[in-house]
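User: I've been trying to design a sequence by hand for this structure and keep getting stuck. Would you show me what you'd pick, starting by listing the structure so we're on the same page?

Assistant: Good idea, let's start from the same input. This is the structure you sent:
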């Protein structure tokens, strides 16, 4: 019988290792941004735009991670090892074809993306292109590493994922520091440091995962799967892709709009985005708990406990959001200074920072609801919410680009808030429906 955690304290304690791991994961990008921010504005803008392109594409396909976490959690709740093996193989096969497409797009379309769409200057283009060209060929290994981490989360191995994330980040910092600071390789050094750290992380996650499972890596690859398995996975993935695509398209529109305002606006947007994502990743620990523990609970015989568990998770996420709000307000200048010492960049960030602070409670609730929807396999709800949010948010950005109704930076963060508002409304509708069905 699963232990049902129904208090805010229980949820927060469960989420600590998951939150730490998720907070550490994006430090690869933050490490690169921090190093480049102390070299110059062009380097910071180049890293910002290159990282945004790569993150937008990788997050567009993070459906593999979330789906594997949900399916492994479901399989673990009923003790079905074969289902775990099947989920892993389908995800790995999918990642192979996805990586070919992504690598081809990045290698052959970078010029079009950076010059024609984002309209960056020639120096920023060359720096960003070098960074992307070094990382693109290794995309398959990044995807497989994410799949293995997702499986560990589905098995409630949050502490193991934390260990892997810490180890990867330390390797990344050391290599990037050596190549950028001591060897003066600038953007190229940052890219190489990230690639090497990701490859080491993949090897470590593979070793830990298959040591714990009842089968090895090659046993998983030799497991036979049918067309129905691929179709079932594909249907769920299609909803997840719509969700991820909508979110990443909004990020792309935002960074494109910021880049067209100049290097200063782009650099400022990148710094604010890094901080916004950092705190989002902290609360995503609760989202992971909702997917893994909540998913196991929902798919077990203890379904009735899901109501209390989910309500406690939502309360915990809201309290974290309020805490983040005050931290943003009190330590605004200190947070911004982590990523840049350029005074003009800091001033532009401060002009919108209080508004970003006000978005934190909403942002936190959305992440908890996402986890609950993943765990109950309400993938269509997530897709509908993101698609609706994209329609409204992108509309605001397009209107402001033509009519200049709002300050450019402020309009971008209002668009982010509108996206999360629609995500929350759609998820709450499904959440209350599920609660009612379990009473």
């Amino acid at each position: 019988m699963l232990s049902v955690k129904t208090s805010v304290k229980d949820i927060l304690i469960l989420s600590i290792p998951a939150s730490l791991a998720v907070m550490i994961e994006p430090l690869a990008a933050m490490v690169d941004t921090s190093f480049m921010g102390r070299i110059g504005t062009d380097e910071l803008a180049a890293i910002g735009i290159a990282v945004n392109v790569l993150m937008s594409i990788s997050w567009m396909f993070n459906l593999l991670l979330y789906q594997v976490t949900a399916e492994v959690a479901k399989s673990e709740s009923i003790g079905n090892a074969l289902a775990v093996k099947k989920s892993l193989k389908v995800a790995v096969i999918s990642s192979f074809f996805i990586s070919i497409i992504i690598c081809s797009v990045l290698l052959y379309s970078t010029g079009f993306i950076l010059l024609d769409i984002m309209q960056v200057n020639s120096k920023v283009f060359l720096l960003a292109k070098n960074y992307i060209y070094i990382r693109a060929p290794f995309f398959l290994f990044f995807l497989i590493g994410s799949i293995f981490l997702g499986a560990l989360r589905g098995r409630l191995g949050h502490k193991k994922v934390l260990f892997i994330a810490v180890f990867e980040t330390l390797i990344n910092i050391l290599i990037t520091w050596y190549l950028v600071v001591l060897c003066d390789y600038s953007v190229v050094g940052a890219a190489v440091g990230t690639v090497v750290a990701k490859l080491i992380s993949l090897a470590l996650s593979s070793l830990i995962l298959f040591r714990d499972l009842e089968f090895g890596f090659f046993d998983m690859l030799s497991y036979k799967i049918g067309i129905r398995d691929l179709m079932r996975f594909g249907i769920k993935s299609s909803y997840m892709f719509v969700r991820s695509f909508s979110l990443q398209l909004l990020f792309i529109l935002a960074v494109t709009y910021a880049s067209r305002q100049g290097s200063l606006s782009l650099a400022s947007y990148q710094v604010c985005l890094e901080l916004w994502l950092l705190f989002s990743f902290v609360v995503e620990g609760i989202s992971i708990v909702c997917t893994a523990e909540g998913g196991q609970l929902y798919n077990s015989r203890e379904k009735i406990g899901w109501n209390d568990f989910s309500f406690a998770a939502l309360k915990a996420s809201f309290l974290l959001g309020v805490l983040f709000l005050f931290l943003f307000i009190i330590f605004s200048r200190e947070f911004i200074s982590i990523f840049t010492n350029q005074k003009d960049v800091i001033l532009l960030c401060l002009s919108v920072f209080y508004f970003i602070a006000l978005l934190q409670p909403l942002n936190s609730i959305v992440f908890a609801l996402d986890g609950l929807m993943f765990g109950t396999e309400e993938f269509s709800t997530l897709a509908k919410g993101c698609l609706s949010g994209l329609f409204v948010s992108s509309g605001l950005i397009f209107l402001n680009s033509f009519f200049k109704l709002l300050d450019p930076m402020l309009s971008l963060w209002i668009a982010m808030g509108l996206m999360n508002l629609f995500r929350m409304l759609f998820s709450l509708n499904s959440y209350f429906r599920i609660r009612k069905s379990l009473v």
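That's my pick for every position. To get oriented when you compare it with your attempt: Residues 8-438 form one domain. The chain has one domain: 8-438.
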